[in-house]
Amino acid sequence: MRHALTLALILTLAACGGRRETHESTASHTATPNRANFGDGHPQDFGSVAPQDHRIHGIDVSKFQTAVDWQTAQANGVSFAFIKATEGGDQADPLFTQHWQGSARAGIPRGAYHFFYHCRPAIEQARWFIAHVPRTPGALPPVLDMEWTPTSPTCRIRNSPEHIRAEAQIFIRALQSHYGQRPIVYTAIDFFEDNQMWKVQGADFWLRSVAAHPRDLYAGQRWTFWQYSGTGQVPGITGKVDLNAFAGNARDWQAWLAASQR
Question: Domains in the chain and their CATH numbers?
Answer without folding.
Answer: 2-7+39-260 (3.20.20.80)
